[in-house]
Amino acid sequence: MLRIDRKNYNALRQHGEETYPHECCGVLLGRMDGEDRIVTSIARAGNTRTDSPQNRYNIDPKDLIRIQREGRARGEDILGFYHSHPDHPAHWSKTDLAEAHWFSCSYVITSVENGNARLTNSFVLRGNDEPDKSFEAEEIVVPKSESVDGVGIRLATRDDFAALMPVVNAAYEVETFIIGPRVNAEAVEEMARKGDFLVAEDANGRVVASVYVETRTEPAYFGVLAVDPAWQRKNLGRRMIEAAEDYARSKNRKTMKLTVVNLRTELPPFYRKFGYAETGTEEFRNPRPIKDGAQLHLIVMSKAL
Amino acid sequence: MAKIHIPTPLRQYAGKQPVVDVSGKTVGEALSDLVARHSELRRHLYTEDGKLRSFVNVYLNDEDVRYMEKEATPITENDNISIVPSIAGGRSPIIMRSHSRMSPSGACCCC
After folding, report:
1. ipTM (interface pTM)
2. Which domain holds residue A254?
3. What is the C-alpha to C-alpha distance for residues A87 and A128, in angstroms, rounded to an integer?
4. Residue A46, min C-alpha distance to chain B (Å)
5. CB burial class (10 A; 0-12, 13-18, 19+) of residue A268?
6. Pick from B9, B84, B89: CB nearest A65
């Protein structure tokens, strides 16, 4: 099993998006824990195959020596390597196997379609020698919602509705162009008929953040992202978004959509950081009254999951 | 004595050590000393006719010995030799076309 934290997992996938349509490559560093590989850092490497970078990669051994030396200083070992397959499945090719010589190391491959990272798979090089070497599929474990500050994220139950409403309404007070609270009991019930709420609770079981996700049809949708003002600026918003995306992926959704009110000009750049791009606009259809003169519409943003 | 850094996949054949002290005046002598002390390493580093395997890169400090004097490259006591198997790959199989096959009219058939 390969354990890697979300930050490094996202980073190796993003590397492939940045080098698209060329293959990216890099090194996985960390330590062994019995049979498991625990990745604690990744290091980007340059692809020396400038003659054919769209379907070949090669890490300069000189880069590797430097990366190894720097890793050693941090007490890290080389656990394996990662590279990308532009517009090609996240599976090892004959070339990958022919050129693999680091036995017991993980080879992580990400398919990048049209510039978007799709699947990431890992394979361990088994065998003792060239004639009998083979790749064996390895499970990648990316811990969900690491318990930083003792905060855990889970699916909400009906019992959480009363607790999440004040959190949502406090977070949305900033939308002064709409009159009245963001949600009431009836609105929450209606949303719960079409989707699910995820909540984050602190070590005392108090709800401190929530997000609404629809996963039953394509595209998936998330909205009403709210973090208790006292818990903002602690990356909790990021964790809620990632939890919503993971949840949608677990339901086999391929695309995630969100909408933001045009007057919230700070939001599109915020969501762009998470890989969302503006894909259109929609009418603002909401029963709540709007302040006089406010012209509202929704900006639609999307991302491939 | 000079040091040879052993890559992770080969440490099991070098008594699990990441670094081995070796004696010798050249890279070749240092490697011979290494496989003399750890004979299991020989087949992983060398082909049957005694040549270094093509995917085994040997670095003296930070330079590839292929661009120096290969195994005849001289070394000193404080040198660090690194064995670094190649890391490479790609998404399609290698397609070898034979340019020596010509169609009767003399034109190359693969372009």
Report:
1. 0.72
2. 148-304
3. 32
4. 12
5. middle
6. B84
